[in-house]
Design a protein that fits this description.
Nucleotidyltransferase, domain 5; five-stranded mixed beta sheet; alpha/beta
């Protein structure tokens, strides 16, 4: 089914992009034109209220409340813009995913057909539905919603191909990425969207796949890499090898872990702790305050590094660890985590000296691919998702 009911003349579309993270929610109006790079014409971002002790049901309720508050702000700012469609991109912990490697062989050559390929994919989705990962996300009688099933890569007789149909082969390999949303989370988000927006269609996607797809398209020389999304409550780290997103690991530590450490260490509240941290990263703290903050955050940073090195060690049991690492994080913590990554003992994982080649996917870099109407509208997460949406729609309209 086409993403849009009709293809507007001239290839121009207006869409909404929603970014639902663990610490904040962003939204943007985007103009897509086949003759130019995408343009973000408005953005807004709202923080999900901070919890000193995280309770997931309360967390979900706060996320939905924040989402609807953002919708109100967007409708006030949207004027008479007619929206053709929407992309809703979720970060952890709102979804779960898995890459399934399908291997099909026959002693005699067979023709690759669209129908046959779809049958294989549907079989894998059925197996995914029967897995423990899927069953663990069932709520009462409601089962999780399949968010996306993406054919990342296809090989025929061991060689990667882009146009497989009609070819006769003995061996077929597919790397299939599948993600899902727990039913209560999907219903809460979908109900809120329907309440505020009359949109022909909403495309749901995971941020891990969205970012992986963008990196693979832009950094064509990097076929194997790590990608990390450091959000408020969770850090996701994914490993790509030979242009396939093989595995992802999440661990419960992020920006808010640092804030909670400051709340406890400074014997203060979250508002003051956030303010003190922002002053520190902007170089505006007194020397005494800076020393205090560094001392308090030392243990929290060690904890995050322990999780990070544990995830890398887990990857290393099955795959070589790539030397290139891309990551996204809020602007006020990106340098902090870049420094932490620099303290990782890479020699524990591979038998060679050296460190990671770290690349921050920030606004400066992304400005090459996405235009913003106003400088204040720059947002790296929404920019990455806009690039993905533009590619999705361009391929659909071919």
């Amino acid at each position: 089914m086409s993403f849009f009911k009709k293809k507007p003349k001239g290839g121009k579309h207006f869409i909404i992009v929603f970014d639902i993270g663990s610490g904040s929610i962003g939204g943007s109006f985007v103009s897509l034109d086949s003759a130019r790079i995408p343009e973000i014409i408005f953005t807004t971002r709202r923080d999900i209220p901070f919890q000193e002790k995280l309770d997931f049901q309360r967390f979900l309720d706060l996320m939905i409340t924040t989402l609807e508050e953002m919708f109100v702000a967007m409708q006030r700012s949207g004027g008479g813009v007619k929206i053709d469609g929407a992309f809703c991109v979720l970060a952890s912990p709102w979804y779960a995913s898995q890459t399934r490697l399908v291997h099909y062989t026959q002693p005699t050559a067979f023709a690759v057909t669209e129908k046959g390929l779809q049958q294989l994919i549907q079989k894998e989705i059925a197996l995914f539905r029967s897995s423990k990962l899927f069953a663990g996300s069932t709520v009462g009688d409601m089962t999780p919603e399949i968010m996306e099933s993406k054919n990342i890569q296809m090989k025929l007789n061991g060689f990667e191909v882009k146009k497989p149909f009609g070819k006769r082969v003995n061996e077929l390999e597919i790397a299939l990425y599948i993600s899902m949303i727990p039913p209560n989370i999907f219903k809460s988000i979908n109900d809120s969207i329907v309440k505020f927006w009359h949109i022909p269609s909403v495309h749901f996607s995971s941020f891990s796949f969205t970012a992986f797809d963008m990196i693979r398209d832009v950094f064509t020389e990097e076929s194997s890499f790590l990608f990390m999304d450091i959000s408020a409550e969770v850090t996701d780290i994914s490993l790509a090898k030979d242009n396939v997103l093989l595995e992802s690991i999440s661990f419960p530590s992020g920006k808010n872990t640092l804030i909670r450490a400051l709340v406890e260490g400074m014997k203060t509240n979250s508002t003051v702790a956030i303010s003190e941290f922002d002053m520190y990263v902007n170089g505006k703290s007194t020397p005494e305050h800076a020393a205090q903050i560094e001392s308090i955050l030392q243990d929290a940073t060690k904890e995050w590094l322990s999780y990070f090195e544990g995830a890398l060690s887990q990857f290393a049991t099955e795959f070589p660890i790539p030397r290139t690492l891309f990551f996204t994080a809020d602007d006020n913590v990106s340098k902090w985590y870049e420094s932490a990554i620099g303290h990782t003992d890479f020699t524990k994982l591979v038998q060679e000296e050296g460190s990671f080649n770290v690349r921050i996917l920030g606004n400066d870099f992304l400005s090459k691919f996405v235009q913003v109407l106003e400088p204040d509208f720059a947002d790296p997460f929404l920019a990455i998702e806009t690039m993905f949406a533009n590619k999705f729609i361009s391929l659909e309209n071919q």
